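User: I'm new to structure prediction. If I give you an amino acid sequence, what do you actually give back? Let's try with this one:
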Amino acid sequence: MKNRTSILTPANFYPTMLAADSAIGQVVQRYNIIRAKLENYFIPSNNIDGYESAKKKQDVNAASKYGTKLGE
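Assistant: Good question. You get back a string of structure tokens that encode the predicted 3D arrangement of the chain. For your 72 residues, that looks like this:
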């Protein structure tokens, strides 16, 4: 039987989690073409529906509109 490996891509969504400040939400990754790197955003639970709707409409700035950039 062959070894199966999983490769994470920028399109992967991470499960809902509990942040350090006790805010419930979702962490998503977005690839920044200009900077050529992945960026992580925290989407609070009250913005997840708006974020999902914007993604369905192909809004490339959905993560920055509905979430907070993590790191940097």
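You can read the tokens as a compact description of the fold. Here is one thing that stands out. The CA atoms of residues 29 and 47 lie 16 Å apart.
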